[in-house]
Amino acid sequence: VQLQASGGGLVQAGGSLRLSCAASVRTFSRYALGWFRQAPGKEREFVGWSGYSTVYADSVKGRFTISRDNAKNTVYLQMNSLKPEDTAVYYCAASSFYYCSGSGCSRQSDYNNWGQGTLVTVSS
Hints:
Elements: E1 2-6, E2 9-12, E3 17-24, E4 32-38, E5 45-50, E6 54-56, E7 64-69, E8 74-79, E9 88-95, E10 113-114, E11 118-123
Parallel strand pairs: 2-11
Antiparallel strand pairs: 1-3, 3-8, 4-5, 4-9, 5-6, 7-8, 9-10, 9-11
C-alpha cells in the first residue's frame, strides 16, 4: 500500500487547511486510516483515526475533522482554527486490520502502512 499525503503549507493562526492522503489499494473501505503528527523536537503523536469509529486526540477535538471518500481512495483531514502548536509534519497511515488491536486505532503500532508526511506551519 502506498500513501501520498498532500495539502500542507503555511497558514496564519485561526486559519484552515485540508490535508489529503491518497492510497493505492483496492479495498480502501476495509482499512482503518489514521493521522499522526510530529512537531520539531518532539515525538510523533496521534491526531485521529477513521474506521469502525472516528476518534480524535483531545488537542484537536472540535477543530479537526477526518473524512474519507472510499470511491477516490482518499482520506482527508480538515483542520480549522489552527494554532501555532499545530505546526508539525502530518502523516497519514493505514491499517489493513480494520479493527486494529481491538481497542481502537490510536497507536502507531496499529498501522502497517505510512505516507511520507506533509508539513503544516502555523504562524502566530
